[in-house]
Every structure is written in C-alpha cells, then in structure tokens.
# Entry
Amino acid sequence: MNKFEKYLALWVALCMGLGLLLSQTIPGIGNTINSWQIRGISIPIGICLFLMMYPALLNLQISELKKLRNNPKPILLTLFSNWIVAPIVAAVLANLFLKGYEQLMVAIILLGSSPCTAMVLVWGKLANGNQEQNVINTSLNTLTIMVLYVPIVSLLTGIQNIPIDRWALLISALVFIGIPLILGIFSKRIIIRNKGENWFHQVYRPIVGKVAIAALLMTLVVLFSLNGQVLISNFDLLGLVSIPLLLGFVIVVGFNLLITRIFGLAYKEGIITVLIGSSSHFEIAIAAAVSMYGVGSLAALGTTMGLFWEVPIMLGLVELGKYMNKRHFWKKEIAPATT
# Structure
C-alpha cells in the first residue's frame, strides 16, 4: 500500500469538499453533468463506476474455490455475516433512525447487503492475515453477489414497504457486476497468455488499481457537485445517515470478533473473517442507488457516506486486530512441525 493509498480517507474527504465547492462556485455545473446521460444512466458516473468495478473483479479466481473444503469454517462464518447478519442489522437500523427518509433507508440496505470483493485484499495484507483465505472468500463473494444481492435488497425493502425499481436494481447488478466480470475473465486470460502471469500481477493490476482509485475519487467529486446545494440546505442529513452506518459497523464488527473467538479461529484466519464480514462493496451500492434514484439523489449520497466511513474504520480495524492478537484474543497459531 503506497503513501497515497494510506491517506485514502483524507482524499475521500477532500473530494467531497471539492464537489461541494464546485456546486457553489460554478453555477449550473450540476445540471450540465446531469444532462450527460443515456436513458437515465449518467455517462460520467457510469464510466467511473465501471473503472471502479473492473479491477475488483479481476480478483476472481475460480480455481481457488477448490480449496474451500480444506478449511471451510472461516469462509462459512464470513458468508453468514455477509448475507444474514449485515443485511438484517442494516435494515433494522435504517428503520430505527431513518424512518421518513426512504432513499436514505434504501442506501443503508444497499450497503449492508453488499459484501466486499476488493479492498479487503489490501486490508488483509496490512493485517498480515491469511491471504489464501482472503482470495477464496472474495472470489466466492463475487459469485454470490450476482445471485443474492437483488433478492435480498428486494426482500428487505419489501418488508418495510419501501417501493423500489427492481428492474433498475437488476440492470445495475448486470451492468456494473456482470459486464466487468465477463470482461475481467476474458481480459485476464488474454493478457496472461500474451504477457505472462507475472506481468499481469506485477504491472497490469497495479495500473488498473490506480485507475480505480482515481475513478472512485472522481465519482465523489461528481456526486457532491451535483447535489451540493441540497446537501448544504440539509447538511444534517449526512450526520443522520452516519448514525446507522457507524452503529452498524460497531454491531457487525463486534459480532464477527465474537464468533471468531467462539469458533476457535487463529489470528490469520480470524482477522480475515472479521475484515470481510464487516466491510461492504460500496461500488455496487453506489451504482444501484444511481440507477434507481439518479445521480443527484439522497440515496446516491447516502451510499457514498458508507465509503467515507468504511476506509478509516477498516484501517482502524487492522490495528485493532494486531493489538488483540498481542493480547491473545484468538487461538494461538500452531507452528509447522520441523524435522
């Protein structure tokens, strides 16, 4: 992780501020950006979201899934947290704190129902966790999100009688996960065949990774410049949506720490389980919010707040995991036998 990525939380905050500044200093910038769309899909946001998604979906390694049977416990615990605990916690907290703000409620549900597939590889490396488990889990999340994301979001919004455009939700999943996934699989094969696996991992992936971060920051500038006036007039809404986001992190992280202790995981497996089980795939959440409600919507801005809080929280969780390991919170690692 280079110096720029270490301060990602700072760049995120600065880009949000830049977007707000542009909305106030350049009259009509929001309307101009919003006019660049095809059938309701913003062209600038669509390009940025694709550039954010594509590098993440290069992480898919189907061959690694064969190793699942070797040590299934951490993977199963993570799947339970990702697809049962986190979505339910998000829906309950959204109902408790955001009643009357349907778009913000949907934003929380979109974030809580989207398990991470990319950034956790960085968090896991920083925490010195089991990266083989990390790759297996993120690969599995990439596949399961294609099947489970739309039904779970539809179920949780339906229970709370929140009307959503399910076709837009389905199309956003197909466009922003399905297409990048297919392109990722084929481009990876072509590049490895022509350039070799080392070049793919050492040169190509770092380059597209930097493009993804640039696209992420540009997305924030665009979103906040589009909705800057609404935000300044209703600045309290950012604080309001932050309450269930932060409380949700506390509950889900606490749950994951507890189950890794109860099920006797060692540190390297336990910390990866906690990191993946507690993080979200904010890219697809933003994409779905934009598809259903538009670029300048409260739902789109609500999902970006998930990103705003997740980066510093995950970095903090990495350090917390290291500290708890020193305090022998997890099962002691078994050293390999020597001859």
Q: What stands out?
A: The longest strand covers residues 37-38. Residues 38-326 form a domain with the Na+/H+ antiporter like fold fold (CATH 1.20.1530.20).
